[in-house]
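Q: Could you predict the 3D structure of Phosphoribosylaminoimidazole-succinocarboxamide synthase?
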Amino acid sequence: MSETKIERGELRYEGKAKRVYATATPTEYIVEYKDDATAFNGVKKAQIGGKGAINNAITAAIYPLLEAAGIPTHFISKLSDTEQLVKAVTIVPVEVIVRNVAAGSFSKRLDIAEGTPLSRPVVEYCYKSDALGDPLINTDTAVSLGWATEDDLKRIRELALQVRDFLTPFFLARGIRLIDFKLEFGKLSSGEIVLADEISPDTCRFWDAQTNEKMDKDRFRRDLGGVEDAYAEMLRRVTQGAANQSEN
Ligand SMILES: Nc1ncnc2c1ncn2[C@@H]1O[C@H](COP(=O)(O)OP(=O)(O)O)[C@@H](O)[C@H]1O
Ligand SMILES: [Mg+2]
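A: Sure. Here are the predicted C-alpha cells for Phosphoribosylaminoimidazole-succinocarboxamide synthase:
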C-alpha cells in the first residue's frame, strides 16, 4: 500500500508556540511547532531560530520513551521538521509543574534561593489562562470549578511523578540537571488521561550538570544570550544518548 500523506485540515487553535490543525481523522490533530517565543505572559516576544524544529524533535524523541515506560501520551508520529501527529484530546485546563530544585516563581514566591534542592519533588498546579497569567491553584479549586475530577487529578499527579522519575535520570545521564518542568494533560474520548503538549527547553529548566549553565528558555527570559545554541545543544544531548556524558 502506498503511504498517504497526512494533510493539515482547518486551524483549530493557535497558541504562543504551536498551531493545532484538524486532520481527515477526527481523533487526530497535527501540531506545528513555531519559532515564536514569549515570556512573562506574552509581554516579551521574539523568534528563536530553529526552535520549532528543535522542540518538535525533542518532544518526538522523548514521548515514545515515556510510552515505553508506561506513561500514555498523545504522541503518534513525527511528520516533518516542525510537525507531529497527535491524538486529539480535550486539554485539562490545569498546568502541572514538577520541581526537583527551587527556581523561577517558586523561588520568588517563597524566597528560596534558586538552586536549592528540594527534599522531595513538589507538584504544583496552575489554572491555564493567558488572561489571568496562569495563576497558582490547588486541586480543590480545580475540582470545585469543574476543570477536572478528583480521580483525574489523582491520575495526573501519579503520571507527572512518573514522568519526573523517568526524565530526571534520563537527562542526568546526558549531563543535564532537570530542575523543573511543566506538563499538560488531556482526556481522550474514552476518558483516559494522557500526557499532551510538549517537553522541551520551552517547558523545562535544564542546567548543565558540570557548570550549572542554563540550557533552556530562561536564557531568553533573562537575556543571557546564546538561546539558539542552548536549544541546539539540548537536542544534541537528547538524541546522542547517554554515552559521552557519563564517561567523563
Ligand atoms: N493533543 C492535543 N489535543 C488538543 N490540544 C492540544 C493537544 N496538545 C496540546 N494542545 C494544546 O494546543 C495548544 C498548543 O499551543 P501552545 O502554543 O503551546 O499554547 P499556549 O500558548 O497555550 O502555551 C495548547 O493550548 C495546548 O493545550
Ligand atoms: Mg504552550
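Q: Anything worth pointing out?
A: The domain at 91-225 is CATH 3.30.470.20 (D-amino Acid Aminotransferase; Chain A, domain 1).
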